[in-house]
């Protein structure tokens, strides 16, 4: 299976993240989703934490609207806020309700430190920096799940987690990843010029991307320990 193309900046940042990228996208939790061996208890624990995660991620994408400098940037950011609140959070509510966990319980899930560390790192990148700092911290989450979804959609050997895999493998979500990739490319060119990859700023953005990738690894690891 070929890896999906989410744009030039993403490819460069992914490369700069080194081994952390594979540790994230091929984590044992992901392989357990692929072959159905992930214990249900771990999956539900992950989903409850992820619901809280998505609340804060929606706030971070809303901050991207605040940090936008063009109508086009605002449109891309607002589309992601909507995808998060209306689709992804709904997926979690649906799966958890079917498993006997009501929505009020989800909202009241005590936040694990690994979860808190990740979302507050991203929000802080946005509070202290500009749209580029924020997008560099947000990108691993979107494109990583895009890559995971595309691979698991093609390679899965069990139907146990097919709903979850289908959401991220589907055309809708893959289109969202391409749109975020384009936003990242155009935001970089607008602020740093076409040669952005050779700007000193780019290295600091790659650091943020790698840090967020490492926080994704910790999040999967947390999922394995309910
Ligand atoms: C820990 C964790 N990391 C990434 C995602 C995936 N995700 C979060 S926000 C977003 C963009 C809007 O769809 C996507 C794809 C997740 N659910 N949980």
Task: Write up this protein.
The chain is mostly helical and 226 residues long. It has one domain: Heme Oxygenase, Chain A (Up-down Bundle). The protein contains eleven helices and no strands. α4 runs antiparallel to α11 and α8 packs across α11. The model has no long low-confidence stretch (mean pLDDT 96). The ligand Cc1ncc(C[n+]2csc(CCO)c2C)c(N)n1 binds next to α4, α5, α8 and α11.
Summary tags:
thiaminase activity, globular, Heme Oxygenase, Chain A, 11 helices, binds ligand VIB, Thiamine_Salvage_TenA
Question: What does this entry show, briefly?
Answer:
The protein contains eleven helices and no strands. It is an all-alpha fold and 226 residues long.
CATH topology (fold) name: Heme Oxygenase, Chain A
Give a quick account of the main beta sheet: strands, pairing sense, barrel closure: none
Order of helices and strands: HHHHHHHHHHH
Share of residues in helices: over 70%
CATH first level: Mainly Alpha
Can you tell me the residue ranges where pLDDT is under 50 for at least 5 consecutive residues? none
Keywords: Hydrolase, Thiamine biosynthesis
Enzyme class: hydrolase
Organism: Shimia marina
Family: Belongs to the TenA family.
């Amino acid at each position: 299976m070929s890896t999906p193309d989410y744009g030039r900046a993403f490819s460069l940042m992914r490369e700069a993240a080194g081994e952390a990228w594979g540790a994230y996208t091929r984590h044992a939790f992901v392989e357990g989703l692929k072959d159905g061996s992930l214990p249900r208890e771990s999956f539900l624990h992950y989903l409850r934490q992820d619901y809280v995660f998505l609340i804060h991620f929606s706030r971070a994408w809303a901050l991207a609207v605040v940090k936008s400098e063009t109508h086009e940037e605002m449109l891309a950011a607002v589309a992601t806020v909507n995808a998060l609140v209306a689709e992804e959070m709904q997926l979690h509510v649906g799966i958890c309700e079917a498993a006997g966990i009501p929505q009020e319980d989800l909202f009241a899930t005590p936040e694990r430190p690994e979860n808190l560390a990740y979302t507050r790192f991203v929000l802080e990148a946005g509070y202290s920096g500009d749209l580029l700092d924020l997008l560099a911290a947000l990108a691993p989450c979107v494109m990583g799940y895009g890559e995971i979804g595309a691979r698991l959609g093609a390679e899965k050997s069990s139907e146990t987690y097919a709903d979850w895999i289908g959401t991220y493998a589907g055309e809708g979500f893959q289109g969202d990843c391409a749109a975020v990739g384009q936003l990242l490319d155009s935001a970089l060119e607008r602020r740093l010029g076409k040669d952005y990859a050779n700007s000193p700023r780019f290295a600091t953005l790659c650091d943020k991307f790698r840090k967020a990738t490492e926080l994704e690894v910790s999040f999967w690891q947390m999922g394995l320990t309910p």
